Amino acid sequence: MNLNKCFRTSLVPVLISGWIFIILLSLDPFSKQSPFKYQYVSNFIGSNAKPSKTRPLLTNSSYHADVLLIYVYANVHRHAYENLKYFIENAVREQDGVDYIFILQQTENKSIDESKMPPLPKTNAFYFQHENKCFDFGTMGWFFSKYTIGNPWQKQSSVTNSNMNNNKTNRIFDIRRYKYFIFMNSSTRGPFFPPYFLQFLSDYENEFNAPYYWYYIFTKRINDKVKLAGPTVACTPVMHVQSYLITTDFTGLTVLLKSATDNDGKVHRGVFGCYPSQVETITFSELSITTEILSAGYMITGLMAKYQLMNFSKNDHRKCTVYGSPYTDKWIDGTSLEPYDVVFVKYNNKTMTIEAQGRAKIYEQWMKAIKTKDKIS
User: Which residue windows are transmembrane per the record (predicted)?
Assistant: First the structure.
């Protein structure tokens, strides 16, 4: 009887999986067997192509962004500009549910010629400039203090008339209006998706007349329990979601903003503080992001297939199984990061990330070839 009971119990997930498979088959997304087209690329990652006729495009009067994305650009390595360019060309779309803030880090207070930067959509993407005296999260903190309202830990708005005079967008960003927040920098390149995945999503969009944007890969992982998501999770020096791209919601952001206020009411620099050294930035910003989220009772997650079943809220899981940085070559069970696994990869001058960068470069070339061939045909 016990064996039969166990057998019947073990069939439950199989039967559930079977029904899901049957439902997916009933949708028959590939019944037309159409050849792969550039449309599949442009529909999902939103390059400068026109929107699909079957997809509704929000008008200015009804448009509302659910996501605030802050991208810090610093031209401190030879791949920084190309990383920015790739992201804008392959991810940023007009009225795609995101307000994009690109902060250009100046050197010696020299203004950056924005006409030489990748062009942005006019309605929902903006360049700001800031002297590179803070690292990434300190610069984001500067933006929050100068151009946003809605911080629950601030009694008054810090937005002043002088700030608005330097604000070309003439906008105040109310962080209470957004559901999700994405923070990233120019040390990463992405997004990367395999063509068959893009084709499936394109068919899905046409079938259900509903968009599926690139950032859903991250925002859909945020829920009542999980408040921090990113491509990779590292264990050195402590377990943390690596900060070159992180996603949270308003609850998670509230936790991170609170890190600047102690129980005694004294103001500290916190996660978004401006620290003078890289060591302090790593300690009090990059590593503290995960620490603050976990300490508040929430969970974290990453895209890495290796860690999908690991509950990082448990102390015995926080050592992971890979001691080191996952983007280091040959560091994950003898292999290297796969761009199609984590969507964004570290792409800078560090020699320990050569294999992932090489794969990303090849995939980029293949996608360009697909686009070129489709335009010619």
Answer: 7-27
Token code pair at residue 186: 């120019």
Are the C-beta atoms of 65 and 178 separated by less than 8 Å? Answer: yes
SS3 call for 311: coil
| Residues in CB range of 94: below 8 A, 6 or more apart | 121, 122, 123, 124, 125
Query: Any idea which fold 62-376 has?
Result: Spore Coat Polysaccharide Biosynthesis Protein SpsA; Chain A (3.90.550)
Residue with structure tokens 């395999």? 194
Beta-carbon count within 10 A of 156 CB: 7
- 3-state SS class at 262: coil
Q: Give the DSSP letter of residue 353.
A: G
Q: Is 241 helix (H, G, I), strand (E, B) or coil?
A: strand
Determine the Cα–Cα distance for residues 327 and 359; give it in Å rounded to an integer.
Answer: 12
Report d(CA 102, CA 249) in Å as an integer: 19
Q: Is 201 helix (H, G, I), strand (E, B) or coil?
A: helix
The Cα–Cα gap between 142 and 350 comes to 28
Block means of pLDDT (10 residues each) for the chain, 377 residues, are 45 43 39 39 43 37 82 95 97 95 92 96 95 90 93 72 61 94 97 91 90 94 96 84 95 88 58 85 84 92 84 61 70 85 92 88 91 67
Number of H helices, E strands in the chain: 12, 13
